[in-house]
């Protein structure tokens, strides 16, 4: 938003005007001011805690409870007050806070209007289940749709990345962020809506607002656990990224190779129908398969000429070095076996242990195909990149002796269907070495 175009500023002004119009009937509506103040304070406090990393995601249950309990103008006031008191991480903070308040105000107004139009207020007061779910579901759909439309509009009009969709913090590429905003946000907002409905029903019950606040306790615990999971996942990603960057710095000719092998391994795993968790592990395996190069002398990794037998034996130790480095990282799972065995061959002539056929872990067989494919389609110090069809033909030729035919067939299918566009990783200004390794899996 730092350099928001004029048309985007006009768009923001229109949304702010719409939010202001939602507040106009406030004086004529019977507004319980203490409830407005309490809900606004709860929402602002929840956003403060979320901003400090304690929870994951925005704090919508209180807003939706306000939409179920209060007249539309009062529900809008809850959103405006709460959003204006909430923290904003990026500059310009004033403009971002104003946009956030207006966006939520319009969304809550739409949710409250739909809920009241479907007689949701009577259902909440009477605790009429399951009928109360119908107006609440309509309100959640309206709330989610309005936020998605407003986010899509600002992303389409702004240059760069305005507020991330549906209250997420940070920058999001515009085109990608606009895709599926409604579908991606519907499930979490529906969960928030259910919690808001429970709050509203307990609020109207003989137990009063104190009982309604108890609904937030299990929600806060679940958000905390979810936030812990995401922080742990981010730490894992940072660990892997640091290791890969160290390899890229040491072996400049293969810069980007690890990420591409991870991508190809993930494509093979998905083509084979593996579950998402295992696909992620195999992506890690592909990314980290060459981490053992950190234990190989740099002069050997950057040597332009052919390797001597002694130098080749030193380089062939890198799977064992890599396994020692990642052995204690528990979250990698079977990726550790892939790091150790990705240079084994089905015919038993590979290294480091000369395993045969099914003795080679499946993860290693996946990474072996992805590794050789990227090696053949990337320019190196000792060879030029092959065309993708030629690389696939070479893999098929070596299937059964060197590579697992299932993995090769899966890669061929997915590449023919989705394509492959590898980047040139070698310094093309340097002349190629006079000799080329005889086996496609031997690459530095």
From TrEMBL:
Spell out the molecular function terms from Gene Ontology.
hydrolase activity
Q: Where is the HD domain?
A: 254-376
Q: Where are the transmembrane segments?
A: 62-86, 98-118, 138-160, 181-203, 209-226
| Record-annotated HD-GYP domain positions | 232-427
Superkingdom, taxonomy of origin: Bacteria
Report keywords, A-Z: Hydrolase, Membrane, Transmembrane, Transmembrane helix
Region span, Disordered: 425-444
Q: Which SMART domains match?
A: HDc (SM00471)
Matching PANTHER family: CYCLIC DI-GMP PHOSPHODIESTERASE TM_0186-RELATED, LIPOPROTEIN
Q: What NCBIfam families does its record include?
A: HDIG
Q: Could you tell me what this protein is called?
A: Metal-dependent phosphohydrolase
Pfam families xrefs = HD_5
Q: Does the keyword Glycosyltransferase apply?
A: no
């Amino acid at each position: 938003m730092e350099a928001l175009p004029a048309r985007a500023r006009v768009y923001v002004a229109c949304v702010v005007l719409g939010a202001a119009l939602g507040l106009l009937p406030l004086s004529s509506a019977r507004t319980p001011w203490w409830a407005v103040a309490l809900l606004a304070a709860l929402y602002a406090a929840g956003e403060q805690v979320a901003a400090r990393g304690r929870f994951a995601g925005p704090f919508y249950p209180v807003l939706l409870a306000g939409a179920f309990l209060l007249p539309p103008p009062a529900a809008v006031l809850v959103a405006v007050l709460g959003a204006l008191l909430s923290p904003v991480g990026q500059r310009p903070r004033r403009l971002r806070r104003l946009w956030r308040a207006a966006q939520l105000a319009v969304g809550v107004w739409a949710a409250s209007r739909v809920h009241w139009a479907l007689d949701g207020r009577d259902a909440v007061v009477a605790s009429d289940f399951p009928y109360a779910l119908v107006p609440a579901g309509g309100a959640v759909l309206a709330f989610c749709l309005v936020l998605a439309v407003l986010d899509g509009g600002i992303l389409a009009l702004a240059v760069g990345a305005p507020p991330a969709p549906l209250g997420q913090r940070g920058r999001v590429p515009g085109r990608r962020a606009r895709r599926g905003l409604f579908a991606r946000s519907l499930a979490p907002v529906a969960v928030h809506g259910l919690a808001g409905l429970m709050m509203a029903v307990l609020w109207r019950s003989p137990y009063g607002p104190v009982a309604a606040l108890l609904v937030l306790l299990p929600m806060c615990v679940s958000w905390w656990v979810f936030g812990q999971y995401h922080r742990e996942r981010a730490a894992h990603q940072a660990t892997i990224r640091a290791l890969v960057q160290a390899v890229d710095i040491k072996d400049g000719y293969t810069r980007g190779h690890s990420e591409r092998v991870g991508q190809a391994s993930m494509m093979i795993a998905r083509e084979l129908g593996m579950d998402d968790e295992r696909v992620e592990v195999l992506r890690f395996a592909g990314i980290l398969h060459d981490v053992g190069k950190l234990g190989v002398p740099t002069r050997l990794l950057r040597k332009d000429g052919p390797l001597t037998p002694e130098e080749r034996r030193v380089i062939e130790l890198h799977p064992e070095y890599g396994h020692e480095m990642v052995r204690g990282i528990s979250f990698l799972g079977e990726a550790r076996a892939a790091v150790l065995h990705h240079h084994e061959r089905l015919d038993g002539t590979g290294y480091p242990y000369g395993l045969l056929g099914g003795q080679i872990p499946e993860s290693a067989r996946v990474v072996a195909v992805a590794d050789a494919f990227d090696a053949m389609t990337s320019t190196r110090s000792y060879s030029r990149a092959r065309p993708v069809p030629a690389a696939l033909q070479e893999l098929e030729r070596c299937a059964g002796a060197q590579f697992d035919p299932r993995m090769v067939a899966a890669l061929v299918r997915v590449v023919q269907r989705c394509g492959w566009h590898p980047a040139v990783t070698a310094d093309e200004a340097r002349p190629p070495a006079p000799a080329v390794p005889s086996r496609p899996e031997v690459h530095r």
